[in-house]
Amino acid sequence: MIPKYISTHTRRLALAFMLAFVMLASGVSAQNVVRVTGQVIAKGDNEPLSGVNITDASSKHAYAVTDLDGKFAFNAFNGTTLRFSMVGFNPRNVKLKNGQTNLNVRLEESDVALGEVLVQTKRITDKIMPEQTDINIKGNYLYVSTRVRVPREMFRQDTRLVVQPILNNVTRGKLSLMRPLIYDAKEYHRTQDRLYNFNMNDTVSGDPLASYVTVKSPSLREKGRTNDIIGYNDSVYVDNVKDEYSCDVYMAIEDYTHILYRDTTIIARGTVNPLRWLDYSFAAQKLSDPRFLPKPEKQLRDSRGEVKLRFPIGKAAFDSADPQNAVEIDKLRRQIEDIAHSDGASIQSLSLEGTSSPDGKYASNLRLAEKRMAFASRYIRSHIPSDLSRDVTFRSSAKVAPWSAVVSLMKADSLKAETEQMENILKRTKNIDAQGVAIRRLPFFRSLLEAKYLPQLRRVDYTLNYSIFRSLTHDEIKQLYDKDYKQLSKFEFYELFSNEPDQARREEYQRRALEVYPSFLAAANDLQVSLLGHGMSDETLLEKFVGEDAPQEVNTNQLIALLNAGHFSKADSVAAFVNKNEDNRLLLAVNDVLNGRYDDYETVAATGERNECCLLLAMKRNDEALALAKKLPEDEGLTHYLRAICLNRKDDAVGAYDELMKAFELDLSLEEVAKVDGDVNNLLLDKDKYKK
């Protein structure tokens, strides 16, 4: 919001700039506002026209300037008449109507009749002239330095000049305001000072532009000329240093009541960044300090064992000499020994179930089953060491097997006729005692039922439930993971991904581990190692772990990830935590040069002549860079590209253009890079000048 104490003319100027910037940057949405996009091309050869000014034909408001491909995009009111103008072409007016949003404009070259030409120096007196410059990259900061010439004829004692540079990310369509330059004539400045009660620097009630003001003085007069010249420099942090950028400048001069002059220009296209070609690669490091690895752990596991004991007919005690019983008793003994020799193991419960065969009276059979269960309970308890049986819970139950159980056994042996006779009896009566009387009359009762099937039903089955602390096997962990991975402990996750040979599966385990345990440092570091090993990285993985107390591997891996992602300024802050030793010297040296510090550039230069050439260009040592570029392999496109940079910097544009064309022939992808490279893109814009 503009303070109410600001003068009308200052408010008008500020509002005009705010409206232009907000509309351009955020896409104002209103019923009568439309988004206008399109391209401007030359009518003669259909080539895109860069640098075409697009203004409101009535108000002269500047909307946009076309980019390298002649493209534009901005917001304007429906019905506005747009004026497209550029030196060397006839201007053209186009009216927006019926919600029209896409324009393809063709400009015709102007015919200029030339007589005898007398070449002489002409001083420009009707334009503010910021010098053309470069956008230089250091780390993630884009630096712009220029000088603004102000003709004496345009700047009176009662005027203010506002210069607003804007960094334009062409790739993403994003505008970033840079520090404005405010140039006040002395009289205008004194008037502003009095207007704000001699306190114009007050941040609340003073002039909002006061901190940016430079006041006209004799020291700003350009030597040998009548105009003033003001220096300017500023920087902007960006996330994406490889995007295409330009620096646009909006300018206006006002007096106390009017805006007297308004203009826009582009002072820089592309970024100057020879270190974009710096070649480096660093191996990630796994954690070595056991303090940061999850500790082995034993988990409480429930287990169970079953033993079946066989009893003689009508007897409550089993015969330990019976071969089946001997096997079962030995199984019981071994189970108990395993429990006794396991650290932390304890028997939780002993569950017994006695079963009697159905021959005879049901009540007698049930009592027999209970007696057998009591005998088996005493026998089993006598074999459990006292230290294991102290807190054991004993449970028991007894039952008489139904005759249908005998039928099931006979069916399994395919005794069809005998089974049918048994089933007929069971259908006729439901009383178990009556069923037994009828079944004992069957001719095969003694030879088949009593001899074979009834003994199978006279038994005591017991289940021994016990708990034990032990580490899970790899297979058990995988089973638990497949069932519900959120049940795994850190150590179990670590065991899982540390022993997984498949990369995709391993990374899945690591990401799931971090989902369940966000502070799992070992999982985050191992995942980063895996990603870096395959040319990828995720700079967010280790971000919260980095610091003075973090393992060196973590700090180092995060530094590598940030450098690989192009986040050089963030990498620089992490480098403070990486030990300065011989092992890390190259890594730290690469970080330094990418952040504009060249004290140890020799370490990086020693990695190869091409890297050294890039470094020399970054340090503006162009002669040395050219001498070295001439030694690079002739069959590589980048060799000729680097030579083009060197020659262009030395003002040999023809030679630079020739080298650039050779680079494109060998590597067509370099042409796209050249469009955003401030070191050579002028060769593409003016290519007709340099063709042989």
At a glance:
With 692 residues, the chain is of the alpha+beta class. It contains 24 helices and 22 strands. The model is unreliable at 1-31 and 112-124 (pLDDT under 50).
Structural summary, described in words:
- The two termini are 57 Å apart.
- The chain has 24 helices and 22 strands.
- It has 692 residues and is an alpha+beta fold.
- Helices cover 37% and strands 23% of the residues.
- Strands 11, 12, 13, 14, 16 and 17 form a six-stranded mixed beta sheet that branches. Strands 8, 9, 10, 15 and 18 form a five-stranded mixed beta sheet that branches.
- Mean pLDDT is 83; it is low at 1-31 and 112-124.
- How far apart, in Å, are the first and last alpha carbons? 57 Å
Shape: elongated
Over the alpha carbons, how many angstroms does the gyration radius reach? 45 Å
Q: Main sheet, how many strands, which sense, barrel? A: 6 strands, mixed
Say how many strands there are.
Answer: 22
Which terms summarize this structure?
alpha+beta, disordered N terminus, 24 helices, 692 residues, 22 strands
Which helices and strands occur, and which strands form pairs?
Blueprint lengths: L7 H19 L6 E10 L10 E4 L5 E4 L5 E7 L3 E6 L2 E7 L6 E6 L21 E2 L4 E4 L2 E10 L9 E10 L4 E4 L3 E4 L1 H10 L17 E3 L12 E10 L7 E10 L4 E11 L1 E2 L26 E12 L12 H18 L5 E11 L5 H21 L3 H4 L3 E8 L2 H10 L3 H13 L3 H9 L4 H9 L5 E12 L3 H11 L5 H9 L4 H14 L4 H12 L19 H14 L2 H8 L9 H10 L6 H5 L3 H10 L3 H8 L7 H13 L3 H14 L3 H6 L5 H5 L1 H4 L2
Parallel strand pairs: 1-7, 9-18, 13-14, 20-21
Antiparallel strand pairs: 1-4, 2-3, 2-5, 5-6, 8-10, 9-10, 10-15, 11-12, 11-13, 11-16, 16-17, 19-22, 20-22
